[in-house]
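Protein in question kept in full:
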Amino acid sequence: MANSTMVTEFLLMGFAEMLELRDLHALLFLLMYLATLLGNLIIVSATTLDQSLHTPMYFFLRNLSILDMCYISVTVPNACVNSLTDNRAISVGVCAAQIFLVLWLAVTELLFLTIMARDRYVAICQPLHYPIIMNQRICIQMTLVSLLSGLIYAGVHTGNTFQLSFCRSNVVHQFFCDIPSLLQISCSDTFSNELLILISAMGIGGGCFIFITMSYICIFSTVLKFQRRERGKAFSMCIPHILVVSIFLSFGSYVYVSPSASSDTILDMIFSVFYSIVPPLLNPIIYSLRNKQVKDAVRKIVSRKFYSGKL
């Protein structure tokens, strides 16, 4: 791969210049990061240790939680360190690795959320065929295909980005390395890069959005025929999923699909928080606090550890 980069490092932006505000920003990011790790670790532990949660729905929820811990770990710890030390420099190699990992994990998360919508569709609309359609082999295959698809997507876009020259500036207008910010500071022609991003984003993002939308149209049309009690239970499983997908797709689409030349830096940074930090933070909250089975599993695990400790 020919790399005509003229800089050896980039400078990331922070949310504030004042020392007190930088420390506050680092503290808020650290608290969100720790809360995300704790919440997702609880889900992983509950869905792994409790035999009653060894179902396709919780298999994908466990995978999503593991992915979310990795996803938020790529950007937030580095942003916290940068704010505390006021050292905004990041090498070209580390920047490329960060872009690759963010893209890989983000695309895989979107595919996981799409698979979870299909899981809910089959469970509610085709309950008698659920064990056959969503068997263990199919679940593992869908997980591996999602990981491989994200890997290919990330590799193509990262390689395409770092074939550009960066001689205009080395200041990245973002708190982590991302492709739209690098395109703004490139002195090469970025039309083909922007076109590829638009086509791939519309293809993968749009395809997943249409699939999820169609799944929930079928789900809601079926749920409306249920009795009121069963209807409420079904809605409580589906609405949190719709909320996470909406946040993830809407803010991610704005950052990656909007023209890089006309985008606002502060707005881009705020929107980046909503697609890179908020979904991993929300997932354990909405899937555990609103899910009786997960809460019961956590109580059993905690009580089991408590009694074993006393013995």
